[in-house]
């Protein structure tokens, strides 16, 4: 997960991509290959429509009890929290990569609703409706978003990895300005 060596290597793998779609395809390949070892994966599902999905799956076993012990009053919700948290992290990673908040149509969680307060909080973070008891854990968004250029590069990656939690929180709270994104793109074009 976030901050692990596997996460760092995945970031190095995707940072050279030109577009968000290319980066998510690489992340999907990376996670699919390592899923048996890591126990989580993201997958870009493109289909034929003008909408795409980014699905997230995490295998929870008895070792996950350290995060939500059975005696904890919310232990029964660890499945929902783990998947919703993973989707929120990927929502933020997409925003950081492109310098713009990922506008999604919906976030789906294939688990029961924890509470209205939890749902409202998540909706505030991803700025979209959250559907619990869904068929899958996913973010749904427009296919056109996949064409967004990455504004981050191998030069900005070390700072991101050093402070990834902070970087993702700020990416969700306050996206880079349009002028900052344009300056980064111009700099990247000059390096090509």
Features:
single chain; 192 residues; alpha+beta
Question: What does this protein structure show overall?
Answer:
It is a single chain. This protein has a 5-stranded mixed beta sheet. The protein is 47% helix and 14% strand. The model has no long low-confidence stretch (mean pLDDT 85). Helix 1 runs antiparallel to helix 2 and helix 3 (78-98) packs across helix 6. By secondary structure, it is α+β, with helices and mostly antiparallel strands. It contains 7 helices and 5 strands, in the order ααββαβαββααα.
General form: globular
Report the strand count: 5
SSE series: HHEEHEHEEHHH
Query: What is the helix fraction of residues, given as a range?
Result: 40-55%
Helix tally?
A: 7
Biggest sheet details: 5 strands, mixed
Residue stretches low in confidence (pLDDT < 50, at least 5 long) are none
Briefly summarize what is shown:
The chain is built from 7 helices and 5 strands, in the order ααββαβαββααα.
Task: Give me the secondary-structure topology.
Layout: H1 5-14, H2 20-38, E1 40-45, E2 51-58, H3 78-98, E3 106-109, H4 116-126, E4 130-132, E5 138-142, H5 157-162, H6 164-173, H7 178-191
Parallel strand pairs: 3-4
Antiparallel strand pairs: 1-2, 2-5, 3-5
Helix pairs in contact: 1-2, 3-6
């Amino acid at each position: 997960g976030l901050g692990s060596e596997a996460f760092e290597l995945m970031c190095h793998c995707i940072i050279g991509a030109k577009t968000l779609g290319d980066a998510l395809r690489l992340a999907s390949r990376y996670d699919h290959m390592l899923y048996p070892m890591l126990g989580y994966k993201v997958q870009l599902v493109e289909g034929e429509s003008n909408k795409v999905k980014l699905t997230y799956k995490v295998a929870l076993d008895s070792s996950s009890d350290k995060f939500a012990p059975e005696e904890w009053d919310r232990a029964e919700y660890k499945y929902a929290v783990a998947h919703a948290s993973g989707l929120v992290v990927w929502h933020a990673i997409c925003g950081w990569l492109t310098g713009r908040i990922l506008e999604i149509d919906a976030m789906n969680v294939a688990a029961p609703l924890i509470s209205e307060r939890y749902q409202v909080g998540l909706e505030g973070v991803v700025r979209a409706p959250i559907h619990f008891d869904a068929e899958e854990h996913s973010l749904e968004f427009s296919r056109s978003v996949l064409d967004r250029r990455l504004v981050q590069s191998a030069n900005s990656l070390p700072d991101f990895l050093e402070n990834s939690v902070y970087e993702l929180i700020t990416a969700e709270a306050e996206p880079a300005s349009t002028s900052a994104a344009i300056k980064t793109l111009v700099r990247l074009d000059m390096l090509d």
